[in-house]
Amino acid sequence: MIRTILIDDEPLSREIIKSYLKKFPTVEVMAECQDGFEGVKSIQEHQPDLIFLDIQMPKINGFEMLELVNPVPHVIFITAFDEYALRAFEANAIDYLLKPVSEDRLEKALKKFLAKFPQPEAPLQEFLETVSQSNTLVNRIVVKTGNKVKIIPVHEIQYLEADDDFVKIVTHEGSFLKNRTMAYYEKVLDPQQFVRVHRSYIVHLSQITKIEPYQKETHLAILRTGQQIPVSKTGYARLKTILGI
Q: What is the pTM of this model?
């Protein structure tokens, strides 16, 4: 039996998918969710093999929701994304359904999945990186703390710090770990607001109160909180360019 969950904020869309799935007796709908928050909880509870996931939802979108789930189930996306994003889906062998969903199209996507189940089609993390970097700069970061989901507006970030295989995002409320890379955040954060001053640090420019010489050709960036952030030679050159000094 294939365990699946429908995650879509439109009740009619979920009803249509459910009606189409009745042709597949080996597919069982374990739950329905109307937003990404419910989706995270439901995936943790039911551990589905497959989810039908809307991308454009209130609160958090489908991509942000997937970043909070581990392990990640197989995904058939439901989307109204443009052609550029659809090429990203195809390149990573993850199927998608364009709204309004037709029965023939869903049947094709599901048969494609069933033919390969339980083997994964492609690393989903690689797919998420591809799609994220094809979009505009991010204005928020979604993190998971225990059983809760927190949305961090980027203007609240003081700095980011590399922490083994994670990135530590530091705000006035504390620090939060995200399973991303510093290189990723260097690409998706506004370069007029965030500067990578060191291989292990990206700093929000508004938080810097002064820059002091340190050892050899390195410096320290002193933040409003008093935190001292190391600044490499390359990072100092970036800062001087951005700050016009």
A: 0.80
